[in-house]
Amino acid sequence: MNKLLIVGTVAFDAIETPFGKTDKILGGAATYIGISASFFNVKSAIVSVVGDDFPQEYLDLLTDRNIDISGIEVVKGGKTFFWSGLYHNDLNSRDTLVTELNVLADFQPKVPQDYKNAEIVMLGNLHPLVQSSVLDQMETKPKLVVLDTMNFWMDCALPELLDIIKRVDVITINDEEARQLSGEYSLVKAAAKIHEMGPKYVVIKKGEHGALLFHGKEIFFAPALPLEDVFDPTGAGDTFAGGFSGYITQSENVSFDNMKNAIIYGSNLASFCVEKFGTERMVDLDENEVVSRLKQFKSLTQFDIEL
Amino acid sequence: MNKLLIVGTVAFDAIETPFGKTDKILGGAATYIGISASFFNVKSAIVSVVGDDFPQEYLDLLTDRNIDISGIEVVKGGKTFFWSGLYHNDLNSRDTLVTELNVLADFQPKVPQDYKNAEIVMLGNLHPLVQSSVLDQMETKPKLVVLDTMNFWMDCALPELLDIIKRVDVITINDEEARQLSGEYSLVKAAAKIHEMGPKYVVIKKGEHGALLFHGKEIFFAPALPLEDVFDPTGAGDTFAGGFSGYITQSENVSFDNMKNAIIYGSNLASFCVEKFGTERMVDLDENEVVSRLKQFKSLTQFDIEL
């Protein structure tokens, strides 16, 4: 079984949407990535940090899904990273209400020995220096390194971000961030510029408008499944990244054609994530639902024109 | 060969985009629909009205594409409908600078006798009463009636619009208009409400984000082709409608599966329309380019997951 190494936040989130609000609940990029990747036949481990205020039940939730948490440092007397956000009526934009870095401020990631030869590395959204440090600790060159990041790091750690971008095979980024990073409005031109920064594959996430995969001149597009209601978009991008990297790890095939499938699997899992608050929908999702919705993706996009 | 009856404006447009501006050039919904449908093996006719200021060369351009223009009334001493618009930097929004109805104000459409038994009727954007009058003149029931409309008629002629919506099989409408017409933000819910107003098929156009086809619980999605540059979006929606109705007319197959293909053909033709000002790109487009881009649409969307 292939190994997937995940780095990213494990956190508390408090979310408010037009449909309701939560107290502090389980959140964090690595949490969503790990849960999403657990739908595939892979060995996975999370590298992250929490405080000793982090409930054992949340850690148990991850180990119950066969995620190795030996790389999650628990800081005695420390407080877990906390994020709070308010979504606007269209759910496409949000205000960050609170960001408490807490134990994340001084985080030195430690990759478990058993994962220093992981086939696939998924660098979830986090300080670029932390992402770089994880790559530095690998003892064998991974078959594929996937990077997710966001505009925050472009604003406050651009040189470090450009360093790590240079070292990865795939970058996943949203449309506005791709425009900011490249200085190009056209996503085709933006992807071309980001290719030049290093990654052979550029994935541009457009939220409810789907995701684009660029590889040189080749382009693939996966729509988001049209849903009656989007309840809470938190974690959708990370769930997408987890499905993408989990599928690639399981199949151990890093061809462009296989990445198309990975994009579809990622979009499929993300379509569940937004149906309830936080990780709620993902933790009670079963395999039959996943397959049934994959069939919906096929009928949504496949057509029969002979050329 | 099957017949396609088109009603809509034939007009002068003056367009300004971030890339340049035009004088009065050939425009109008029926013009774009007719040119787009001319890429299929169909007999087509346009019902419309112009003033005697309308250049013969524009009429010749239509007849050169085998479009029957006997239903285009030329009003002696009348002035042709004129629209002028300014696109913003993102090309997704525009301001209307001038709308001169001119001969359109008193337009009484007359369907040529030879087209009163047309298999397919494409009601382009125009006053709902004009669209209704065209349907009233049909002597045999068309196999399919397609309606395109816009928010303007929702604002100023809603009862008449709801009357014509009741009578058509397919409605094509953009996302904001679907939300306005239905009062629902979710496009899945909006389509369900519009179904209840009459049309069995609802096509929601999302511009650069593609188009959705709804038929009860069935949904199909066609992306817009990612382009390096969009030059001028004018007429893209009409070109889409012309490709859709032209393909349906040629194939004479009104099944949901065939409509998927029609949506792809429409999206394909629309992707060319936006590459130059007005109808410029469409009139010098050749069959090889159309087929080559259809192949791009296939590789953009087709994947190989066995379920």
From TrEMBL, chains A, B:
PANTHER family listed in its UniProt record: RIBOKINASE (PTHR10584:SF166), SUGAR KINASE (PTHR10584)
Keyword Transferase: yes
InterPro entries in the record: PfkB_dom, Ribokinase-like
Signal peptide (residue range): none
Keyword Nucleus: no
Residues of the Carbohydrate kinase PfkB domain: 21-281
An MF annotation (GO) of this entry: kinase activity
SUPFAM superfamilies linked: Ribokinase-like
Protein name listed in UniProt: Sugar/nucleoside kinase (Ribokinase family)
GO CC annotation, single: cytosol
Keywords recorded for this protein, A-Z: Kinase, Transferase
